[in-house]
């Protein structure tokens, strides 16, 4: 199993996706600090929303095999700066979340933001309902 770190804005669905992938009960849980779940590290949304926390992200990423950046399809903010992935020495993939409540244009905008941030492979999922999570699960378990 690849050890992965989830990074994304507050409320983008990091913890819900983790719960889905781990077969846990889906319930809202605000992540207050870096949390470790076997092979997945869940980071608080504040870590990407406040630049002073980037050092913590970079330090934590040193111990992972894969960095997963998540962008909610219903959040139109530019969360990740251009070439964000270059701060990591690990591969970076992207996940567009909340596709179940977004339209095609919103999903494409989220995808473009992840591409500009440097994600090499992008998945579009609904963590709440489990839509399109199988391929991501396979990649993480590879």
Would you write up a description of this structure?
The chain has 142 residues and is an alpha/beta fold. It has a single domain (4-141), classed as Rossmann fold (3-Layer(aba) Sandwich). The protein is built from 5 helices and 6 strands; from the N terminus they run E-H-E-E-H-H-E-E-H-E-H. The chain has helices at residues 14-21, 46-49, 54-61, 104-117, 134-141, and strands spanning 4-8, 35-37, 40-42, 66-72, 92-97, 122-124. Strand 2 and strand 3 form a beta hairpin. The longest helix is centred in the last third of the chain and has 14 residues, at 104-117.
**How many strand segments?**
6
Q: Strand order within the widest sheet? A: 2-3-1-4-5-6
- Contiguous helical run count: 5
Helical fraction equals 25-40%
Q: How much strand content do the residues show?
A: 15-25%
Class computed from helices, strands and strand pairing: alpha/beta
String of helices and strands: EHEEHHEEHEH
What is the first-to-last residue Cα distance? Answer: 6 Å
Uncertain stretches: none
The Cα radius of gyration reads 13 Å
Shape: globular
